[in-house]
Amino acid sequence: MSDDRRRGLSWSDGDPALRAALSVPVGEGLTLDGAATTLWGSPRHGGADAALDIGPTFVRQVGGWRLGAEGRYHLFPGASHQGYGEVGATAGFTLGPASLDLAARYAPRQSAIGGDNLYLSAGASAAIPDTALTVSGHVGRSTGEVRDAARAQRLRPGGGYWDHDIGVDWYRGRWSAGLRYADTDIEAPDSLHAGATLIGRLGVSF
């Protein structure tokens, strides 16, 4: 990908990144998930060379709704005292080629992030009939308590903020590619690698 951008913030200092992810089924609706992403000495995460995201995900279909819960711990090799954990809940509804997803993710108070962090988001996607293309978009809001302003800048530069994106993805067999426009309402001087950008990606799954 041309930038590892999460919740409107670049984790890779605006530079290209590589990501590998693995999901292992361990029970009905339960998987153990892990992902590793190159960060190349990210200043946002104490000079970390990579981010490792690990934890379980549970998903169950209830009527027309897809309900999920997850836990994630984020590790940062190459940096000290940067790891933090969070939990999340999701609800998704699919109607034909379109889907709607709502999510809440919460990181309890931890010294590594200077307080706690709540992220609420809503997203929608729709496959374009008779094509390999899917269009999608989302909007999210980050808030939380600040106990250490310097450390809280990692996840909430300048305090609470909104982010949004819209994009198009192409899927063909194991291959996928995408182009996405992302932005936030974070104002200068806290807007470094948080402003409007186009992000390209290429992926393959096995």
Automatic annotation (TrEMBL):
One protein family per Pfam: Gcw_chp
InterPro entries in alphabetical order: CHP02001
Annotated protein name in UniProt: Porin
